[in-house]
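G., the chain you wanted modeled:
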Amino acid sequence: MHFSGDLEFSEGLRMDGQVTGNVTGRAGDESLLVVSDQGAIHGNVHAHDVIINGRVVGEVHVTHFVELQSNAHVQGNIYYQKLRMDVGATVEGKLTRIDPMQASAAALAAPEVLPALDYSNRAG
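Predicted structure as tokens:
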């Protein structure tokens, strides 16, 4: 499955296909996004909790917990409160820990919708 366009979800979403666009958990929800080893997102991600075992090309903004499983590959910066990274996961970008007070304020505000980053010209 391939979906083009921005996607907003509440509660939980498991991504086994391809999305070109931003994926956002509804503001104020304790949303969970799971990107399986078959999943890929070409766009920015905003959610409460995120588990990645596939590919994300874009910024990842997590207000609570991010888990990068062994097949995870992220091209972009990750902003998180708590992080777990398994052996084999790769990140081409910065890992930035946010303090709990910033995370709480961010969860109450609607995320700023930014255009998806274009990493298509990068070697690799």
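The CA atoms of residues 6 and 82 lie 26 Å apart.

Shout if anything looks off.
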